[in-house]
Design brief:
It is a single chain. By secondary structure, this protein is of the alpha+beta class. It folds into 3 domains: about 1-60 and about 70-120 and about 170-200, Roll (PH-domain like); about 125-165, no CATH class; about 210-274. About 45% of the residues lie in helices and about 30% in strands. The chain contains 6 helices and 11 strands. A 7-stranded antiparallel β-sheet has the order 6-5-4-3-11-10-7. A two-stranded antiparallel sheet has the order 1-2. Strands 8-9 form a two-stranded antiparallel ribbon. Strand 3 (about 75) and strand 4 (about 80-90) form a beta hairpin. Helix 1 packs across helix 2 (about 135-155). The protein is globular.
Length: about 270
């Protein structure tokens, strides 16, 4: 009896030491990978006259090891350029993307014409069995309490452990339309990176250039009105140029804290006739 308990104690200690060694190694590897990535970002910033900004991040565990999740990490498709994992921020009135890919992307905020959103976040529940074939801890406790019979029973205590796992499916995309150096309209697609868990770019661009989203809504609303009111005169259509100054003034009042967020949303919808 004593030999069984001793063996189990030794095995438990060995497993714990191995686990801690693997955990520490994975953690160190994740930080080494982060250092290498941020070195690429800094070099890209230097080459493209972009002021580097230290990103916010958190360390996560994805079941296969540790990973670094950047708050401002995204995937970018700009046609001839792209980033499989890029960081974004505003520098010198430019929307900047830098990271791992074919090159940095800089778009003057004044050149952004409009942006649109597509996709959604879905949460799928999955049921799985986390049970173990043999529970060493259960066998140890069972052996101490009830001898060999207790060891056998305790070893099977974790055989069936049903749990629910929620899987996130995020296919959100932000389409940004802007004028390039040749004054031609180009499209930029920003989405969640396969190498990052977070996606906050939709919130970010709304906070930086909110009236550009309104430009899209105005154009879209105007187009629908033309389709639904083909017999109306041109004077009844929405004049985008006349509404943009109103939206800009409203945004200024909100940013200066002269009106609340509720008042801002209400007045904005009234201007857009939503």
């Amino acid at each position: 009896m004593g030999i069984f308990i001793l063996v189990l104690l030794v095995l438990t200690a060995i497993c714990f030491v191995i686990y801690k060694a693997i955990d520490t190694s994975q953690s160190n590897n994740s930080y080494q990978a982060q250092d290498a990535f941020l070195s690429e970002v800094r070099k890209m910033c230097e080459d493209n006259d972009i002021t580097y900004q230290e990103p916010d991040f958190r360390k996560t565990h994805n079941g296969m090891g540790y990973a670094i999740d950047y708050y401002n990490g995204v995937s970018v498709d700009a046609g001839s350029k792209g980033l499989i994992l890029g960081l974004y921020w505003i520098d010198k009135d430019n929307l900047c993307f830098v990271g791992r890919g074919t090159g940095a992307i800089k778009i003057p905020l004044s050149k952004i014409e409009m942006y649109t959103f597509d996709g959604s976040v879905q949460y799928i529940s999955k049921i799985k069995n986390d049970g173990k074939n043999v529970s060493f801890s259960g066998a140890l406790v069972g052996g101490l309490v009830a001898g060999e019979a207790g060891m056998i029973i305790g070893a099977t205590k974790d055989r069936n452990q049903i749990s629910t796992e929620v899987e996130e499916k995020d296919d959100r995309k932000v389409y940004v339309y802007y004028r390039d150096e040749n004054d031609e309209t180009q499209q930029l697609i920003v989405s969640k990176s396969l190498f990052n868990e977070s996606f906050h770019f939709d919130e970010f661009i709304k906070s930086k250039v909110p009236t550009k989203r309104d430009t899209y809504l105005l154009a879209h609303t105007n187009s629908e009105k033309k389709d639904n009111s083909a017999q109306e005169t041109a004077g009844n259509n929405v004049d985008i140029n006349s509404l943009e100054p109103q939206l800009a003034k409203l945004k200024e009042l909100y940013e200066n804290k002269l009106i609340s967020e509720e008042e801002y949303d209400l007045k904005r919808k009234k201007i857009l006739n939503l």
